[in-house]
Structures are given as structure tokens and as C-alpha cells.
Design brief:
alpha+beta; 19% helix; 4-stranded antiparallel beta sheet; 7-stranded mixed barrel; 206 residues
Length: 206
């Protein structure tokens, strides 16, 4: 454990911790889930939210103010996951505009996207949606001005400094560069989502 953290009460039933990295957020959330009885504990990219029963405010606040950042360790026991992507065309309708914004050919973009090993930083705004770091420097594009009401599961997008993969059908505003046919969601599996925070990912063009 390191220095004591400073929780901030942002709602009647929510405290929030600010941390330095997504890995710190995951480590803190894991520690709090094991040591604290709360309604919900959610890790973001640089913060952790703790939702609690307001009737337990005094006890929760006392416990949280004694919290220190646990040691942060990347997941090492899970194998690297290879994700095959069909880039462009009907699967990646925004690839051309993304390449224009980055001043790259589609082949150059695909080569740059598939070269590094990426890291799942967090699972986000819809169930199973993965925020994945590892894009080359400068690969930052904004979200769409008008989000799509329905994005098919398996769709792959990029926004800001992340690749995002939709594990389930749903709305979304990320520019879509392709789609994977990997089984991202397995309803009958005890761990239903293929990707988890801390996991390493290698993209491959199909």
C-alpha cells in the first residue's frame, strides 16, 4: 500500500477516488470490493466510484478515508488474445474518414493498428465494451457528431487514444474502422466476456 487516498463525495450515495492510471483504478476497485460492503464499485480510466447506502455514510466515509492505493500489477496469467478484424467496407464505414483525419492510407492505418500489443484498460459504458490502449501517438480522432442508434456487436472503433470494441449490440458514437467475429460474449460462461481489464490484445487483419 502507498499513500492514503482522498475520497470525494460527489452525490448523496457516491464517493469517488481520483487515481493516476487505469491499472491503478482496477487495483483499487479490486481491493475495495474485497474489503468493503458497498452497493457498487466501478473503476474508470482515472477514478473509482463507490456507491453506498446513505444510511451507512459515517461508517463508509471512515473506512474510505483510511484507504491507501494498493500495489498495481498487470494481469499476467491470462494469455494474449488475438482479435481478427475485417477493416473497412460495410464493417468499418468510418475507416476512410479516420484515415483522412490522420493523413494515412488505409493500408498504413491497418499496419499501424495491428503492429503493437494493446492493453484492455477498462470495461465501459455498455456491458463488455472494452477501452483498449496502445494506439500509436497521434492516433486521436473525435467521436461522431451524431451517435448511431444501433452498432452491431463485434464492431471496432477508435476515439481519443483508445480502440473500443462493442461486445453487444447497442447505441454508440465511436468511428467504426472494422468488425471482429470473435466470440466476445458467452452467455452461459461464468466469465461471459472475452476481454477483461489488464489483458493483452493483438489485432490481426482478416
Amino acid at each position: 500500500m502507498s499513500a492514503r487516498l482522498n475520497p470525494v463525495r460527489i452525490a448523496d450515495d457516491v464517493f469517488e477516488f481520483q487515481v493516476d492510471t487505469p491499472a491503478d483504478a482496477q487495483a483499487l476497485a479490486t481491493h475495495l470490493r474485497a474489503s468493503l460492503e458497498a452497493e457498487d464499485i466501478v473503476a474508470g480510466l482515472d477514478r473509482v466510484a463507490v456507491r453506498f447506502d446513505p444510511r451507512n455514510l459515517v461508517e463508509i466515509e471512515t473506512r474510505l478515508r483510511d484507504t491507501k492505493q494498493p500495489e498495481t500489477a498487470r494481469q499476467t496469467d491470462a494469455p494474449l488474445v488475438e482479435i481478427g478484424i475485417q477493416y473497412g467496407g460495410e464493417y468499418g464505414p468510418d475507416l476512410a474518414s479516420v484515415c483522412d483525419a490522420l493523413d494515412l492510407t488505409e493500408d498504413a492505418f491497418i499496419a499501424a493498428h495491428t503492429a503493437p500489443v494493446h492493453t484492455v484498460e477498462m470495461i465501459g459504458f455498455t456491458p463488455g465494451f472494452s477501452y483498449i490502449s496502445g494506439l500509436p501517438a497521434g492516433f486521436s480522432v473525435p467521436r461522431l457528431a451524431r451517435p448511431r442508434p444501433r452498432v452491431p456487436d463485434g464492431s471496432v472503433g477508435i476515439s481519443a487514444a483508445f480502440t473500443g470494441i462493442y461486445a453487444l449490440n447497442g447505441p454508440g458514437g465511436w468511428p467504426l474502422i472494422g468488425r471482429t467475429h470473435a466470440q466476445l460474449f458467452r452467455a452461459n460462461d461464468p466469465a461471459p466476456f472475452l476481454l477483461t481489464p489488464g489483458q493483452s490484445v493483438q489485432f490481426r487483419a482478416l
